[in-house]
Amino acid sequence: MGMFSNLNARRTIKEGIDTDRMEFKKLSEFCGTKFVVNGFFFTQGKYGKQVVVVGNNGYLVNMPARAVEQFEKIAENDVMVDAMIDGKMGIGNIKKITTRNGETTAYDLEDI
Fold first, then answer.
1. Which residues does 103 contact at the CB level (< 8 Å), separation at least 6?
2. Which residues contact 62 (CB under 8 A, 6 or more apart)?
3. Is residue 62 within 8 Å of residue 47, measured between CB atoms?
4. 70 Cβ partners below 8 Å, 6+ apart?
């Protein structure tokens, strides 16, 4: 690999998926379920950087703010990105929990 080519944008969504036709949902709408991750991307909103997961359930899933750091680490690791694109990453154990700052949605990243 060349000195500069590793700076090119890395594909983080499985090929052939048209995210323009997918509906956004909050992770909390999937409590009690699990799904395979087909990709992800970051957005800049009024609350700062957020991560949106492309689920095999047909939805774009808005993740909690704390997910940004996890997905930044995945984006920096070619092996993890390739495994995710190959359908080897899931999100499960989705449930609402109460924290000091209010209600949030807990989840686990899973190896499939």
1. 96, 97
2. 24, 25, 26, 27, 50, 52
3. no
4. 51, 109
Count other Cβ atoms within 10 Å, centred on residue 97: 8
Contacts of 76 (CB under 8 A, 6+ apart): none
d(CA 66, CA 49): 10
C-beta neighbour count of 111 within 10 angstroms: 7
| Residue 103 to residue 8: CA distance in whole angstroms | 38
Cβ(26)–Cβ(80) below 8 Å = no
Q: pLDDT tens across 49-60, in order?
A: 999 999 999 999
**For 59-92, what is each residue's pLDDT tens digit?**
999 999 899 999 999 999 999 999 999 999 999 9
Tokens of 46: 């009024």
